[in-house]
Amino acid sequence: MNDSAPSAPHASAAHASAAHTPAPHTAAAPVTPAGRSSGSPATAVLKVETRLFLREFGSLFWIVAFPALLLAILGSIPGFREPDPGQGGLRTVDLYVPVSVLLALIVAGIQAMPPVLTGYRERGILRRVSTTPVRPRALLTAQVVLHGATALCSAALVLAVGRLAFAVRLPRQLPGYAVALLLATLVTLTLGAAISARARTTKATGVIGTVVFFPMMFCAGVWLPVQAMPGTLRDIVEVTPFGAASQALHEAAGGSWPSWTHLGMLALWSLVLARTARRSFRWE
Amino acid sequence: MAIIEVDGLRKAYAGRPAVDGVTFRVEDGEIFGVLGTNGAGKTTTVECVEGLRVPDAGTVRVGGLDPVRDHDEVTRLLGVQLQESGIQAKLTVREALELYAACYPHPADWRNLAERLGLAERLGTRFGKLSGGQKQRLFVALALIGGPRVVVLDELTTGLDPRARRDTWQLIEEVRDSGVTVLLVTHFMEEAQRLCDRVAVMDGGRIAALDTPDGLVGGCAGATVISFTPSRPLGERELADLPEAASVARERDRLVIRGTDATVNAVLSLLARRHITAGQLRVTDGTLDDAFLDLTATGA
Q: What pLDDT is attached to residue B46?
């Protein structure tokens, strides 16, 4: 938004004056090669944010372990491993693989990420960074990337548990599945970003996150798989981000390319939410 | 040479002026104080210097550059400690220093800084577990890590115990002695008097006075304070009529007269004429506190 790129003549004036200025002379803290860091600031920020992220055991548990654990628990119920003629011969555990995948995304994007972003604003961390040559956006980007990557790892873990423990087929239309999964990740991250953009405090972020969390879980089919929903309800749920995601993943898992309606819905939601987040984000 | 130039700065929030026409220059190598009560406009002023806020009117230059337009260049010249800011609670001191060093093209040696600021023993401690004084020392280290020519310290010693405050004062002097200009925002008169080469007293968004601490104290009415316990009652009005007496107050059985050296002589001769002895007679210089109250009373 305000990447204040100085105009060309101005930039050269700035460089000229910098050339006349003697090198920063801090006798207390002389510039030494030891003080030089390797790599770019963005890399350093990503490295540090990764370390911090790995220290959040609670978040990591809910994003990475919880969805796979839920699948394991449901799959251990004998009745859920019986083929259901009403579901075209699929077992309940088959239907809960995409549900658990989406759960991983929802927990990462809506429960875990927004309080971190809002907290960075609320505790003045973004302000502090904006007085350095690094933009505060670098911190937020690092957090969004980390939550997205972790959600995808969790999704992979769910697929692995389903395959190894319950012989659930891996997605048969793999590129289609990957596209649907990436779009679903984008939706969850933009939704989370929009929440932290709108909420004033970390506390409010938690409240909004929880309020949004349950309908999103419902639409993802946590209580009743989308594919098992009655006609009208399913039509409505398919318009929501995670209803569309559920259908797209289900289709790709079954071997066909996900319908463009569902993929388009995901892309549309991502766009709208990204715009909202971008426009209403408060830097302080 | 002035490293910071502020000229006719104005900034309003929702129509209410916070800074209303402020002009000052910070010279290379000095400790320049911005003094004022809460809401006087100090923090808004320095936030405009830091490029965190865009002025409504007026110009701000740091090393000849505009903090908003030339944001990146200015951040390399200007180290900042903000009044309300933090770093990630689970970041260790070492990680914070490394991270902020990586933000700058030519950072100072963070090990050296940690050593100098007494943080060498705390490198593995997380920010959230540091004491108030240690946090402030880390903020000073982070302000210096880019090898700046000038640092802005905003209410650095607020909330510190007297000992930590004195340690911090020494630190600020060391920073200046190392060749870095200091812009110090404070509401502690004692701090400004002890540290600053020059002080701008802010009141209601304007600069009420700008001088050396001694100049401010000497220039105000009641720069000299005479106090004593008279052996016999003495009329306050009579004292108030003495030459150059600014005020007379009774504090229990003691009389406190503010004025100048001329007042001192007049008081002594009056006492001699009346054969009154002055018990526990004290003649002291006024403090910046007095000067401040004197300067801001008229502005309010």
A: 94
Closest chain A residue to B68 measured between Cα atoms? A4
Regions of chain A short of the pLDDT cut 70: 1-39
CA A33 to chain CA centroid, Å, is 38
**ipTM metric:** 0.78
Domain spans of chain B? Answer: 2-211, 218-299
List CB contacts (< 8 A) between B149 and chain A: 21, 24-25
Class of domain B218-299: alpha beta
Strands, sheet with B278-285, edge to edge from the N-terminal-most edge strand? B247-251, B254-259, B224-230, B278-285
pLDDT in tens, A114-142: 999 999 999 999 999 999 999 899 999 99
Distances (CA, A) of B172 to A80, A237, B94, B152, B192: 69, 62, 22, 11, 12
pTM of the prediction?
Answer: 0.80
Residue B63 has its nearest CB partner, among A21, A27, A130, at A21
- Mark yes or no for CB contact B86/A125 under 8 Å: yes
Decide: residue A11, CB within 10 A, 0-12 exposed, 13-18 middle, 19+ buried: middle
- Cα(A170)–Cα(B114) distance, rounded to whole angstroms? 53
Q: Is A56 exposed, middle or buried (0-12, 13-18, 19+ CB in 10 A)?
A: middle
To the question of domain B2-211 being in CATH 3.90.850.10, the answer is no
